[in-house]
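With this grant's support, we have settled on a layout for protein records. An illustrative entry appears below exactly as we store it:
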Amino acid sequence: MLRDAEIKLPKPRRASMKLDRAALADEIAAELPALKKALAKVATEEREKEATLRAKQNAMRKSDKSFGQGAVLLAASFTFAGLEDLAAKVRPSGRRPGRTAAEEDEAPPAEEPASPGSPLPLDGG
């Protein structure tokens, strides 16, 4: 675009200011490969970030499922042994995976993890 002589630029506001369109185009062209390389690296890192987040979410789901199954088994064992007080402490939460019902009553609700395509919160966190 800078090299296109058909595109007329407005007259400079100051007579001492001149623009060498060809020189500016050459400077920009010299920096272009580094910019393209940096943008490609950013795109690669973004894809890696999304893949890592999906792997983390899958691992958390598996962990929460295993925790829930183990907690149910333990609670049932305590109930069978007549230890209701212990069974109540290890019973899994029905609303918050990976937590016991006792923890659910004590702790404030945790924030849900962001999905790979969701925007970042406005506070930058």
